[in-house]
Amino acid sequence: xxxxxxxxxxxxxxxxxxxxxxxxxxxxxxxxxxxxxxxxxxxxxxxxxxxxxxxxxxxxxxxxxxxxxxxxxxxxxxxxxxxxxxxxxxxxxxxxxxxxxxxxxxxxxxxxxxxxxxxxxxxxxxxxxxxxxxxxxxxxxxxxxxxxxxxxxxxxxxxxxxxxxxxxxxxxxxxxxxxxxxxxxxxxxxxxxxxxxxxxxxxxxxxxxxxxxxxxxxxxxxxxxxxxxxxxxxxxxxxxxxxxxxxxxxxxxxxxxxxxxxxxxxxxxxxxxxxxxxxxxxxxxxxxxxxxxxxxxxxxxxxxxxxxxxxxxxxxxxxxxxxxxxxxxxxxxxxxxxxxxxxxxxxxxxxxxxxxxxxxxxxxxxxxxxxxxxxxxxxxxxxxxxxxxxxxxxxxxxxxxxxxxxxxxxxxxxxxxxxxxxxxxxxxxxxxx
Length: 433
Fold this sequence. Notes:
Elements: H1 2-5, H2 8-39, H3 42-70, H4 72-95, H5 101-124, H6 126-132, H7 137-166, H8 168-189, H9 196-199, H10 213-226, H11 229-260, H12 263-288, H13 294-305, H14 307-313, H15 320-334, H16 337-348, H17 354-365, H18 369-383, H19 385-405
Helix pairs in contact: 2-3, 2-5, 2-6, 2-7, 2-8, 2-11, 3-5, 3-10, 3-11, 3-17, 3-18, 4-5, 4-8, 5-17, 6-7, 7-8, 7-12, 7-16, 10-17, 11-12, 11-17, 11-18, 11-19, 12-15, 13-15, 13-19, 14-15, 14-19, 18-19
């Protein structure tokens, strides 16, 4: 009986990620389109995107010590409840004609602030859930990647269709339901002690509970990360590509959809088809990733998944089938990225530091996202859409190529199948007692 119950935590984490990310993907279509058609300005579209993503990055960055202290289950539950309330408020206020642009920006900022630690909390429960379910780590991260891609499939298609048929506020109402459902899944499926068990070995002592306890724990995360050159290279690579991808999703894609006459439905379909093929890539990665050399697979997949998307939209009067073909191939290759990233991270970071290091790692990787929409909107206004798309594609390709050639990237397979070293348990920050 106990054996049959073991997979439940992993299934619960994956289900919570699925529904909350679906809500995020729907709102990623609904909010930019709402601002674009309301104001007609790609700059304002980028500003509202900044209002959501700046709190997302900042709060996630600062939440790491809290996650390690009180446990990710509670943080995940709270984040989903707050996100549901803010998304529902946007839909309600619009229905009552009480949603000026400033109020919209404030509410999406609340969503971003809640989503940051909530998303991180779900991700750091994966290794413990894999242990409880007796699932190999690479397979668990592969399944996590499949779930993320499934959300990328369902969310944009549903969001694009709903925005086209009923308007953007209807999409935000669906987002609110998804966030609420995520909190229900976490409350029902995950044990109350989830995440605390892993953190126990490095829990702060009574001495650290003083005024400097939080900052000391924060510094331990920095001290560990500074000693991981491979993680630093991967963070830098993902930071640049995330900035470009965010500009693509928040501004460049919607501007292309409006200017080409294809509209939100085709844009959502393109993103959704990319998610469909990414599921296939993720399933292949879950089945075969432990047999493949990570470095060539990872960086080759990055090159195919990224630059071609930008370049195809820069072509005048490009047919929809060509866009779908490029997005489909890119999605399949992109399905290999997150499973490899997750496995490399979980192999190196001690469980008791996952909150602190994960907060720093993802916040740095997301650091360009808040300004991506603003920069993209200003660039399109100054130079036009096609030149900006080409420039983004070139920068994307150069970034991934140089990262793959970095000496630290050769270590991607060094700890395959191993846990973190005992000597990496809890490093002291510089100047620590």
